[in-house]
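Attaching the record inline, Q. Sequence:
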Amino acid sequence: MSPTDCLGVSWLRLSGHVDRDRALARWAETEPVLAHIGSVHALARIVHDRDAPGRADAMLGALVRIATIDGGGDEDAAVLTAHLLGTGTGRLAVQLRDLSADIDELIAGALWIQIRTFPWRRRTRAYAKSLLLDTRTAVLAELRPYRSRAGSTRVVVQEPSLFAETSAPGMSSALGPQDGSGGADGRTDLLDLLGWAHASGAIDRSDAALLLDLVAAAHRTDAQADRVPRRGLNAAADISLVAARWGVNEKTIRRRRDRVLGVLRDARGDYLAAVA
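Structure, as predicted:
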């Protein structure tokens, strides 16, 4: 097994599908650097060419922009990017093998999230290095005793419901409205909280995106069922929806959710001091 084996599609099947779909020509309409690349195999040779690192980085950057949720949103490009980084994720799996029996699955899931949420407007080079380092950081945060991103403060992970029930301003509604009277304030509080946590380095962009997607999924299912909005982010149906959207296992979503909520719970005092 390897992380690429956990992507759900083999290189042979993926390359055949992308070539038959003429995806490279379509992607070149917005990313001209991909023009006149005859096939996925030709693209792979360029990306892996150590003698032309600048061109390789430009090609991978184009794929990443096409793959991100807030860019092109193309899942084929995301899977292709993950496959092209297979050598790096394979090395990472060897390095971290002793931390988990599921290390291949964890790395594949973490890489997928990093690709889909990559901050392409801000990061404009060294795409392979950035994705692999971010993936390593995300996997270690999943598996090692929880600490802040700075590494100095231990984070005690709490149940999501405990975080939702805290009486702190901006915290009690951070996971959605509490009394059914309306959700605007809750969403505003959540955005404020996540914005502060991201700016302070407590969480990263993909952590915030995950919580926002879970909250959005909960609001959608509540609205469709015409029921009072729920507290917390525990519903299996919501987790399933977000896992499908992000292309990862539900277990990955639960692990990441619990870790992010634990970090936010631990940072409550600092947040209250900042907004006081």
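DSSP finds 14 helices and no strands in the chain. The two ends are 51 Å apart (CA to CA).

More tomorrow.
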